[in-house]
Amino acid sequence: MTNPFGAAGDAKYVLLTTFKKDGTPVGTPLWGARDGERLYVWTPTDSWKVKRIKRNPKVTVAACDMRGTPSGEAIDGSATILDGQGTDRVRDLLRKKYGILGWLTVQGSILRRGKSGTVGIEIVAA
Length: 126
Prior knowledge:
By secondary structure, the protein is α+β, with helices and mostly antiparallel strands. It has helices at about 50-55, 85-115, and strands spanning about 15-20, 25-35, 40-45, 60-65, 75-80, 120-125. It has one domain (about 5-125): Roll (Pnp Oxidase, Chain A). The chain has 2 helices and 6 strands; from the N terminus they run E-E-E-H-E-E-H-E. The protein has a 6-stranded antiparallel β-barrel. Strand 1 and strand 2 (about 25-35) form a beta hairpin. The chain is globular.
């Protein structure tokens, strides 16, 4: 399988950039997990990035550090908000990639917010 995301496809942190109505980019560092030719991230359901993606699915992704400083080329893509079953799959991918820290983070989020409090996002490279 090819990795259309370059360094972002296997990075510890991914800078997901979404766009406001006026075109202003807003970048957020997130955990990401690649499965084949798709990249998955996970975020609170009521976050602004989810609202922006629902309005405009165009995004960019780049490898970054935990503060969001990019360390690789930005790749254009299209994002889709996943349903409950898709979000469960993203949680599993993150648990697998991030080990015990991933497991603790996902479980803590489920306890704090419930399963509907977070949502998975699927990104396909343009």
